[in-house]
Amino acid sequence: MFGKRADGVKVKDLQIIDKAISYFMPQRIDAVNFSAQYVNCKTLDEFILKEKKENGIHYTYTEILIAAVVRMLHERPKANRFVNDCVIYQRNYISVSMSILTKLVDEGEELTLKFYFKGTESLPEVKKIVDDEIAKNLVANAETHETTRIAGLLCKLPSWMFKLAIWFVRKLDKHNCLPKSLIHASPFHTSIYVADLRSIKLDRIYHHLYNFGTTSMFGTIGKVKYVPVADRSGNVTVEKRLEMGFSLDERICDGLYYRNCMKMITDFAENPELLKEPLPEPELTGKALKKKQKMDKKRAKKEAKLAKKKKKTEEKEGV
Predict the structure, then answer these.
(1) Is 245 helix (H, G, I), strand (E, B) or coil?
(2) In the list 6, 188, 244, 310, which could disulfide-bond 37, CB 3.0-4.6 Å?
(3) Within 13 Å of residue 259, how many CA atoms lie on the same side as its CB?
(4) Confidence of residue 4 (pLDDT cuts 50, 70, 90)
């Protein structure tokens, strides 16, 4: 309330046009721009093959692209902003939302997952976060993911009550009163929503942005194509190319900044070796240091509690 949110901090000292533009275009769908990006798969494929042979690790295009986007959002924080009620906020976390099908059939169950990152993770660390979250939700009798569980509860309501609940959630969000737990579970309150359309054999598309939530970027990964490319001398070669489509909220940063963001994603994707090492952790001081120490203490307490519970279960089973 009064400008303070659980997921972001109000951006101050904006230029006049940057502050005014969200009032000219109050809805996210009003301000959407589209950008096509292409990745040359040559070095990408060489990297994947090398890692598989030398280290036994199989990276996918999707994992590498997610790692590239996460690194970009860390290096270029304006791309991780959002607009709520005509006010621009800097998001205080990096997350990627994605929907996956448990089976590639019409009746296959769709799961919506949300991955959280610090932004300093290496490619292996990003892969582990993504793989672990997917594996956890695909095993038989898996505990329903928080996002899917809450959506399921809402959908069980009668139509009039469901409509009222969504209206209430929108009002809470507009006035910065939406609980942190709901923001955490919502796939629409995220840095970027990603759709891998290769898995269903579709070309990349330009997906709309949602007015609900805070997502300022939507990226789709399309089918790989072999395209003719001519150099300056007129010589034509065939290039294996991965196509991506981005939908971007123009209110959070200007065209040049976005252009450099897109270039960074493609540069990282074409040179994934740059992502193998994590970035150094920033030195924390003051409130940030106290907050980290508090979180570490809370995490250690939780881990100790789980270890104690596991030990009791093992002792009980041993008896």
Answers:
(1) strand
(2) 244
(3) 3
(4) confident
